[in-house]
């Protein structure tokens, strides 16, 4: 979410730019770290994101390919291929929707759940570090509203 700023009404300090750079650096390091953790667990980073999107889907029903495409910000056909490969690896399976057989939902298989559980434990610890770093931006959020 961006904060609306009139381009002519605010000049940013050198420290503002350093703070944003430092935060973006931390985010990039987190993403790189996360990708390495996925690989160490025997998953591709995309498979890890898929498993997270399936498990973390907010609706009561498992997600459809289209809903996963939205979560992952990928095109529908790219998610179809990702699900195909994850299904072949025993991480997920397609399941027809009981109320509308035309709809296919994606559910985790036990191997996918186990891998995701291990990665999530690691990620929670690392996110605590990132959250602490983001606290530096609290005064900025309050003064720039």
Provide the helix percentage.
55-70%
Number of domains: 1
CATH topology: Arc Repressor Mutant, subunit A
| CATH architectural arrangement | Orthogonal Bundle
Q: In sequence order, what are the helices and strands, one letter per element?
A: HHHHEEHH
CATH superfamily: Winged helix-like DNA-binding domain superfamily/Winged helix DNA-binding domain
Largest sheet: 2 strands, antiparallel
What is the count of β-strands?
A: 2
| Terminus-to-terminus distance | 12 Å
Low-confidence stretches: none
> What's the rounded overall pLDDT mean?
88
Tally the helices: what do you get?
Answer: 6
DSSP strand content: 5-15%
- The strand line-up of the biggest sheet is 1-2
Using the CA coordinates, give the radius of gyration.
19 Å
Written account of the structure:
This protein is mainly alpha-helical and 145 residues long. The protein has a single domain (14-143), classed as Arc Repressor Mutant, subunit A (Orthogonal Bundle), CATH 1.10.10. The protein is 62% helix and 7% strand. The chain has helices at residues 14-40, 45-55, 65-72, 76-88, 110-134, 138-143; strands at 92-96, 104-108. It has a two-stranded antiparallel sheet. β1 and β2 (104-108) form a beta hairpin. α1 packs antiparallel against α5, α2 (45-55) crosses α5 (110-134) and α3 (65-72) crosses α4 (76-88).
